[in-house]
UniProtKB/TrEMBL annotation:
This is Major facilitator superfamily (MFS) profile domain-containing protein. It comes from the Eukaryota. GO terms for molecular function: transmembrane transporter activity. The keyword Transmembrane applies. Residues 1-46, 271-292, 393-420 are annotated as: Disordered. It is found in: Membrane. Keywords: Membrane, Transmembrane, Transmembrane helix, Transport. The lineage of its organism: Eukaryota, Fungi, Dikarya, Basidiomycota, Ustilaginomycotina.
Length: 573
């Protein structure tokens, strides 16, 4: 639901003065009449609350939500990489070659790209229910892997596929959660926190995997991931509320799916106190019960709604109708493929060139992982600063030169002339979400610093490849992998943020599409990199990756010049 009087810009989260979350189910319905005497429109206070994410959750609750979303996003890449140091041990126990065990990595990557398309229905049915489903699948698969008997290679492939299906959607849902509870002005830094959790996984995973496998065997890895999944599942059940506005107000979704346990317990305690108070009041003054009676709700009806929302893999493909989204997908997908082409042979290269052990080569992954995590936070701050600057310019321009039939005064106020002094608040509040998406120059607000990150990433790829080719002192290529991760994390954060801006409340859907493109391109690059190194060497292979990165950096330039024009043209039709 959208309110015509409410735009997407609101006071930043840091300006909250309240401490309690808004109970949307108890907001009364009222009519609102425009000040210009036009025909009254049916609007509700619920709609106003739903369209104001900064007013729904308190500052402390937002911190809890972001923490859980970041921890959940950490699981998918962590699980993908924790298994890598144990591959030789797994091959020995299952009685297969190392090449066959590598097939489990390929299957995991494919499932990681495809499964969010099926389990990414959180934009329709809500975030919390899909979260719980993913955690249950993930924990069950880990329990099976931890008890896998020797020789059961087929079981390894099946359970790794299920493990990926359970974990892959958590990043997409986390981005959707951020888009639910933030405004564009504050979205960059908070989204960077969730992305930092996702990018920290590749740094920590191989280290923990090597330690566990060496100390207690490779099955201990999956007992660890089982415990991690169970912990996040418990935190989600107790503390994470439903953040999607339409799902919070949808009473066809069972109450335990829509609300956190702590909220349910608090509301029941309040209801008991109210009932005790009403027990001593005359019957004529007692209020009627407001139990959640909004029509019949059966297991069958709920199941049909969930299946319709979650098992529609083509639901999110409509974004390919928008050329700016397609360009953004490849602008981040190609560098991600180059990153995979760099990190997949990393252990083998350092072991063969410098004589490192499996655990020592696993420690090298810390450098690119820390770089990615650090750049996510830095890029988030840069995004917020750039957005505020462009928003001020946008307000001044539209105040001086009103156009497109949009008054410079906030919606619902008296009509003003073009020379009216600008309102103290951002004019984005006067625009509907559709108008803001069409008219506001998101490209100028998000992409101003993007060329720096592309240049950093390409230069780091090139330098890393040739220092490794020349067998330079060990510390040099390791330090360069840090800058490889730094460059990738920065451009990933920026492009992912503008993709969410393009699709509005469909943050989980666009992230699922983004994940599909990145994983498929990553699978292609990881499949060909060993052949490239064997044919032309690691130095020239990294030179090719640097060239691909520079070419993909031209795509954001097309977004900068043509993106606003494309969006405005669609809006005027």
């Amino acid at each position: 639901m959208e309110s015509q009087a409410s735009g997407i810009d609101h006071p930043p989260l840091s300006s909250h003065s309240h401490s309690a979350d808004v109970d949307l189910e108890s907001v009364p319905i009222s009519k609102k009449t425009g000040s210009d005497g036009a025909k009254a429109k049916q609007e509700t206070d619920v709609e106003n609350a739903l369209d104001s994410p900064a007013n729904v959750f308190s500052k402390g609750r937002v911190a809890i939500i972001i923490f859980i979303a970041g921890l959940a996003a950490f699981i998918s890449p962590f699980t993908a990489n924790i298994f890598l140091p144990a591959l030789p041990d797994v091959a020995s126990d299952l009685g297969v070659s190392i090449d066959k065990v590598n097939l489990s990595v390929f299957i995991y990557l494919i499932a990681q790209g495809i499964s969010p398309m099926f389990l990414g229905g959180s934009d329709a049915m809500g975030r919390r229910g899909i979260y719980l489903t993913c955690f249950i699948i993930y924990s069950g698969a880990n329990a099976g892997l931890a008890n896998l008997p020797n020789g059961d290679f087929a079981g390894l492939l099946v359970l790794r596929f299920m493990q990926a299906c359970g974990s892959a959607s958590m990043v997409a849902i986390g981005i959707g959660v951020v888009s639910d509870i933030t405004t564009p002005a504050s979205r960059g830094s908070l989204m960077a926190i969730v992305q930092a959790g996702a990018t920290l996984g590749p740094a920590v995973g191989p280290v923990i995997g090597g330690v566990l496998s060496g100390a207690a065997g490779w099955r201990s890895i999956f007992w660890f991931t089982f415990a991690l999944g169970a912990l996040v599942l418990l935190l989600t059940l107790i503390f994470l509320p439903e953040t999607l506005a339409t799902a919070r107000a949808n009473h066809h979704i069972p109450l335990p799916i829509r609300k956190a346990w702590v909220d349910i317990c608090t509301e029941r305690k309040q209801q008991q106190q109210q009932q005790q108070h009403q027990h001593h009041r005359p019957a004529s003054l007692q209020e009627p019960s407001s139990a959640y009676e909004h029509g019949p709700r059966t297991i069958r009806s709920v199941a049909i709604r969930v299946l319709h929302a979650c098992w529609s893999p083509f639901r999110a493909l409509h974004v390919f109708k928008q050329p700016e989204v397609v360009l953004a997908l490849f602008a981040v997908g190609l560098p991600f493929g180059c990153f995979y082409g760099t990190t997949v042979p990393l252990s083998d290269q350092f072991q063969s060139r410098y004589g490192l052990s499996t655990l020592q080569s696993g420690l090298i992954f810390i450098a690119p992982g820390v770089g990615v995590s650090l750049s996510s936070v830095v890029a988030g701050k840069m995004l917020d600063r750039s957005f505020r600057r462009v928003r001020e310019e946008f307000d001044q321009d539209r105040t001086a030169k009103p156009q497109d039939g949009i008054s410079p005064s906030p919606a619902g106020s008296a009509a003003t002339s073009p020379t009216t002094v600008a309102a103290p608040t951002s004019l984005l509040k006067a625009l509907s979400k559709e108008e803001t998406t069409a008219l506001f120059p998101f490209e100028h607000a998000r992409l101003a610093y993007l060329p720096l990150w592309f240049l950093l990433f390409a230069a780091a790829l090139l330098a890393y490849g040739w220092t490794l080719e020349r067998n330079v002192y060990l510390a040099v290529p390791i330090i360069l992998t840090f800058f490889v991760g730094l460059g990738l994390g920065g451009l990933f954060s920026i492009i992912n943020c503008i993709q969410v801006d393009y699709v509005g409340g469909k943050g989980a859907s666009i992230t699922a599409i983004n994940n599909l493109c990145r994983c498929l391109l990553g699978a292609v690059f990881s499949a060909i990199v060993q052949s490239m190194i064997a044919a032309i060497g690691v130095g020239w292979s990294q030179t090719v990756f640097a060239g691909i990165t520079l070419l993909s950096g031209l795509l954001p330039l097309a977004l900068w010049y043509f993106g606003p024009r494309w969006r405005r043209a669609r809006w005027t039709k």
